Amino acid sequence: MIAELICHAGVDTSDTAKHALSLAIDVLNSELDSSITKINDKHQALKKQYQQLIDRQEDLAHISTEEQTLSFLISSISMCASSRLEALFSGRWENQLLRDDQGRVFMDVDPKSFKKILEYLYMVNHLCPKSMYQRRTSLTLHTGTSSSSEARERSH
Question: With CB atoms 3.0 to 4.6 Å apart as the test, which of 62, 76, 95, 129 could cross-link to 104 if both were Cys?
Answer without folding.
Answer: 62
